[in-house]
Amino acid sequence: MPSSGIIAVDAAAKGMKLERYASGGALLLRRATSAKLVSASSHLLFRATVLATLALVFLFTLHYPSLLSRSFHLSAGGDASGGGAGAGAHSHRSLLMSSYGGAAWDKEIRRSARPSRDGGISVLVTGAAGFVGAHCSLALKARGDGVVGLDNFNSYYDPSLKRARQALLASRGVTVLDADINDAPLLEKLFDVAAFTHVLHLAAQAGVRYAMEAPQTYVASNVAGLVTVFEVAAKHADPQPAVVWASSSSVYGLNTDAPFSEDHRTDRPASLYAATKKAGEAIAHTYNHIYGLSITGLRFFTVYGPWGRPDMAYFFFARSIVAGEPITLFRAADGSDARRDFTYIDDVVKGCLGALDTAGKSTGSSRSGKKTGPAPLRVYNLGNTSPVPVTRMVAILEKLLGKKANKRIVTMPSNGDVPFTHANVTHAAHDFGYRPTTSLDAGLRHFVDWFVEYYKLDVKIAKGARSAADKPAKKKKAAAAMSASS
Ligand SMILES: O=C(O)[C@H]1O[C@H](OP(=O)(O)OP(=O)(O)OC[C@H]2O[C@@H](n3ccc(=O)[nH]c3=O)[C@H](O)[C@@H]2O)[C@H](O)[C@@H](O)[C@@H]1O
């Protein structure tokens, strides 16, 4: 039978194999065992790899939720390039807070928004990791107000400086969210979670001359973003907050009457930046008129100081002087030096807090869409009232840094710049006691102290540059306000 024949052949073959294998039985056994072991261990390895990958994905999701879902980090601060000691507890907490919304997120927002003093206000600060925003947030927090900040950390200038400011704020208990003012749902959510009494809206695309390079970013931030903030404040927040926001001295544009008063013409902006700020003032009128939103616009005059903006002349001039690189100075068409009403940050912060404290209530209702009566609509100059030639500003820096600048003087290009600014601050003085007290010499001294420390520069600040009156008290005050090492 063919079948038995096959069996016989199989048996014979097996017998031969058995015979062959019998001699090397031990070897075969070892081979079979090791084959099983290899197979078993590769299964194990495979499972371990899968498990490790899953664990990594889990940890990654926990730490970087924004990459996987729509979310906003709280008080990161881990990547701060300077300052920010003491941010640890908050940074750690922030890593555990994933996407916005949710019990932990809500709790953190409420904590940061809660005033610690009786009668304290609760302020949503946009642009809180910016220069003026960070200083104001710290000052509000220090006097017992609640503060929640937001900032989109864009790269217009070195974002690591913004992260360092964020870390400093975190160390003082102020949460700053990574978020954009054009994100209406987030803003609405914030008002659902915390009853902000005020919005200090400082987020903006700054810089006069950069507007020629990136016009759309000015429209997106200074017009669309402002409208988003007003929309949420007017139509969603319940009750409506009072809004104080950053306009600019640049709205005076080609105005030649000096000093600039709020009553002067502002219909001839010289740059798109100025035009967007002027547009903002017109938009403010509309939201006040229709929705009864209390709105205060602050026209800042070339604000400078520690933790300042690296895109501003005093800051990058200091850098260039230290590096021995040339600087370009613009001279007005009539040959005169350009002049600015440089205003020190601490004076501006006092003005911002004064404006918040006297803002007056909104009169509208986001529920009914109606207002009960007129609400305050204000605009104020926040300047120093004493313009200084830019050449003098450079001379002060040279003295402080102990090094001569390599100057190139050119006629001011037509790039949106204006030859001079000069503030009349009578209204701010009358309404909230605004009185700038810091000279450019004293203010630049504070700036250079911070600048040298923050960037760890090997620069000996000229002793003679420190005026006797300015020596101990003011330096201490500046350090306390926003110390680079804190
Ligand atoms: O007051 C304001 O509203 C504005 O103040 C500053 O604008 P600006 O005064 O032009 O400040 P800088 O860019 O720091 O320029 C200061 C002075 O240095 C001069 N400058 C600037 C750059 C340069 O390379 N060379 C130079 O001589 C300018 O002509 C100006 O007179 C801010 O950058 C704006 O964001 C702000 O809104």
Residue share in β-strands: 5-15%
CATH architecture classification of the largest domain: 3-Layer(aba) Sandwich
Distance from N terminus to C terminus (CA atoms, Å) equals 97 Å
Structural class, please?
Answer: alpha/beta
Please give the radius of gyration in angstroms.
32 Å
Task: State the helical fraction.
Answer: 40-55%
Order of helices and strands: HHHHHEHEHEHEHEHEEHEEEHEEHEHHH
How many beta-strand runs?
Answer: 13
Query: If you average the pLDDT, what whole number results?
Result: 84
Approximate shape: globular
Oligomer: single chain
CATH superfamily of the largest domain, called what?
Answer: NAD(P)-binding Rossmann-like Domain
Low-confidence stretches: 1-35, 60-98, 467-480
The number of helical segments is 16
Number of domains: 2
Main CATH class of the largest domain: Alpha Beta
Associated small molecules: uridine-5'-diphosphate-glucuronic acid
Strand order of the largest sheet: 3-2-1-4-5-6-11
Overall description:
Residues 123-358 form the NAD-dependent epimerase/dehydratase domain. This is UDP-glucuronate 4-epimerase. Keywords: Isomerase, Membrane, NAD, Transmembrane, Transmembrane helix. It is a multi-pass membrane protein. The chain crosses the membrane at residues 44-64. The structure is a single chain. With 486 residues, the protein is α/β, with parallel strands linked by helices. It folds into 2 domains: 2-63; 70-304 and 345-386 and 420-437, Rossmann fold, CATH 3.40.50.720. The protein is 47% helix and 12% strand. It has 16 helices and 13 strands. The strands form 4 sheets. The protein has a 7-stranded parallel sheet, sandwiched between helices. Strands 7-10 form a two-stranded parallel sheet. A two-stranded parallel sheet has the order 8-13. Strand 1 (122-126), helix 6 and strand 2 (146-151) form a beta-alpha-beta unit. Helix 6 (131-142) packs parallel to helix 7 and helix 13 (390-401) packs across helix 15. It is globular, with a radius of gyration of 32 Å. The site of uridine-5'-diphosphate-glucuronic acid (UGA) has 19 residues, from strand 8.
